[in-house]
Design a protein that fits this description.
53% of the residues lie in helices and 21% in strands. The protein is an alpha+beta fold and 232 residues long. The strands form 2 sheets. A 6-stranded antiparallel beta sheet has the order 1-7-6-5-3-4, covered by helices on one side. It has a two-stranded parallel sheet with strand order 2-8.
């Protein structure tokens, strides 16, 4: 019975050199085993729907954005396999790697090689990628929008219409933050991302910078203003 080690991959951004280093592990392992039944296969799916696959080293097309990368090494006679799945998908366990073999030391060695490469890749922004932090951010944004609307209509809160507008503001804030976190943040900050394309990823970086600018220059000062005015 083989020994298997399986790990999840979360909150990482893979560049072209990282993909190449992972590819090196698979092809160097194929050479080390030196067995005719050992097979290495890769599959790269791009966001435009096209797929590149094969069993030889590839040159990554930087003109297209990557959706997923899958590497596999198998040898049924030796009961040996290495599998890696990297996917821009926030579904549970969508990105993993697994090493299986008959010898524990070999499994540990190959797992360590892969994990070393993963650890060296840049970290994704966990505050905007992790679901718990996103929930906290959603609550914060609702409070910020509520504060803004409150400052605008606080002189009219003595009337029923004023309270009605305040309720509408809270509901709108909840809807708006839900759409923001459900769509934009999933796109901008997935648990696993690829920064390879010379076009789309550059656009993504600009969108991230714009989001940070809004938070720093508008939302945070607004919250501070609201808190200070309530304390005076």
């Amino acid at each position: 019975m083989g020994i298997e080690k399986r790990e999840q991959i979360k909150y990482k951004i893979f560049h072209e050199q990282d993909i190449n280093k992972l590819m090196d592990v698979f092809f160097s392992t194929e050479k080390e085993l030196g067995h005719e039944e050992t097979e290495v296969i890769y599959t790269i799916q791009f966001k435009d729907g096209t797929i590149a696959s094969g069993s030889d080293r590839l040159t990554i097309d930087r003109n297209r954005s990557i959706q997923s990368v899958v590497f596999s090494l198998t040898n049924k006679s030796l009961h040996t396999s290495i599998a890696m799945n990297l996917h821009i998908d926030n579904a549970k366990n969508s990105s993993t790697y697994a090493v299986e073999g008959n010898h524990q030391e070999w499994v540990k060695e190959k797992s360590a090689q892969i994990q070393k490469i993963i650890n060296a890749t840049p970290n994704q922004n966990q505050y905007l990628a992790h679901p718990v932090w996103r929930t906290g951010l959603s609550i914060l944004l609702v409070l910020l929008i509520f504060s803004f609307m409150y400052l605008l209509i606080e002189n009219y809160l003595s009337s029923r219409a004023g309270y009605a507008w305040l309720i509408v503001a809270v509901l709108w804030a909840h809807f708006w933050t839900g759409r923001l976190l459900g769509n934009n943040l999933d796109t901008l900050y997935p648990k696993v991302d690829f920064d390879i394309s010379i076009h789309r990823e550059s656009k993504k970086r600009k969108q991230r910078a714009f989001l940070k600018l809004i938070v720093i220059c508008f939302l945070i000062p607004l919250l501070v203003k609201f808190i200070v005015e309530r304390m005076i």
